Amino acid sequence: MIKKEVNREGWEQIADGLAAKTSTLLGLWAERECVHICIHDPATGVSVATLQTPDKSYPSVARKHLPALRMERAIADLFGLKAEGSPDRRPWLDHGKWPVRTPFVPVPASTTPALAYTFLPVEGEGIHQIPVGPIHAGIIEPGHFRFSANGETVVRLEERLGYVHKGIEKLFEGADLATAAKLAGRISGDSTVAYAFAFALAAEAALDIKVPPRAQDLRGIMAELERIANHFGDIGAICNDASFSLMHAHCGILREETLQHADACFGYRLMMDRIVPGGVTADLGAAEAVRLLDWTDSAEKRFDELMQMYEDTASIKNRTNTTGIVSEELVQLYGAGGYVGRASGRRFDARHHAPYPPYDGLEFDIPVLKAGDVNTRLWIRAYEIKQSFILIRTFVQRLPQGKIMATLPSPVPSSEGREGMAQVEGFRGDILVWLRFAGDGRIARCYPRDPSWFQWPLLEVAVKGNIVADFPLCNKSFNCSYSGHDL
Amino acid sequence: MHTLLAKSLITKPLTIAAPQPDPAALAELAQALDQRARRLLGHSLSIREVDAGSCNGCELEIHALNNAFYDLERFGIKFVASPKHADVLLVTGPVTHNMKIALERAYAVTPDPKWVVAVGDCACSGGVFAGSYACAGPVSAVIPVDLHIKGCPPQPIDLLKGLLALLATVSATGDVATTGT
Ligand code: SF4
User: Integer distance in angstroms from the first to the last C-alpha of chain A?
Assistant: First the structure.
């Protein structure tokens, strides 16, 4: 990781580079007296630039590069730092319900003016609005969607998020390593492995901890099990929203089997707290490993049949084809990861493009398609499931003997100011975790960035011009995280 | 599709046998409901799930109750889209301040008699998020709770045991209730 301090001019240059598409935004976060921006530049790699903010403000990146917009609004809510010249100064995470404003520099809310929130206006004859949420009809996370529709056609969708904001970034502050690792695993429950993985890699980078090879491969098995469990669930859920419940039932069985194997192998269905800084907390037994391998064969065969059925059923294809299209230009601009990016032609997978153990040195395909519709996002998942089966077999078959945990220095010697960052490919895309230690081995600041930050805005675009009834399909095909985004 | 359908004719169902209701849950419910009206619900319960700030882990396991293994509907328990159609609110999460009003409203529009089940460590105690400026506290700090199902997240089998205990308790002999709380 390249790290540099920049002045306002340097900061503006970074924003210009993003706007000119010579680099991609990976994250934007703050501390009490500075802002950090993380970008990927194909020429120089990943870098973090820091700008001091003695005046409690910094030049808005979003005024040149819109993907930074919601992050700047979140920074204003949490730290009270202003983005100068921002095109949208409305609050984002703060709904005016917390007892404090700007919780990192807390001001009692009672002493500040009430927060107002106005949705963007939509004008035109016959336009009506449909407010949905925060509580949705299904068993899903809460958020608010404001549809403006002309008849059945969606003219604009405006998302309002932040409902599940739990103050996670603040809870990291001052947490000891074990507590922080647990917290990282609860940022987004469907990605508990990926977050714990990213957090562990970041902490290990900061503290120079070497993870035993066996633990690295076990992490890979867990990460791929989590990926296929989620992809099975998503494929079933997408089909269910078009009333193709047979797919849903069968994908539900495959998902359940995946979780039962995770439980048998690692003692936890969703595999919470299995990955910790230094290694893993559960080992894979020989008998369980054999059963896991057998299952991958049987599951893959059944999954192939299901996808054949999907492909042969005209009524479902009629709903998923050409629905909810996102252009390649937009996924490139937003640096959208995961199936959202790869279904629209953006070839990026952190396992390959920013490799980390156990994926470094492995050859594997990254499925990329172009059409960018619901059907394509579904197929990317299907291809990735196949890929994950191969990876699981590889890791299980080559699994070296040995320890599963490095010896952690305790107390951590001179951890003061040590920083680490990691990018991990979760099922929905690349997760970024940056952290810095305080002197006593506790976390001074940790910033986890969910892939959803760069996908949610594209959902607004994807539904435009579609009928209202196709929104659930579009939404499920994105399956953005609320909790990972709201923090 | 035909092979798939034909296969399902000859394979055994995957559904697990019904577990016994959780004794601890029965005890908690007996205490909660003794002071309350009971009603014969005809052995069926409609549930509205409310995510009040969860990490989504609890939702995933609640979802699993509908899969072929746990098949919740065989007990007459089903999820409904509106709290207005629900007997039970299944609440997850450490109740964020941003979700508090929505939870209170969902509770208010659920017809009496109604039951509230707090699912997961967060809903029971705030979990790893306890004490945050953004959280209002466990579910019981916001609306009355009849049953707590712990776990992070609770396994589907634990959810099933808890819900069966609830079903057994509310459909035990009793007169038609006039009010809930
Ligand atoms: S109890 Fe655990 S799984 Fe459930 S919402 Fe809380 S952190 Fe997530």
Answer: 25
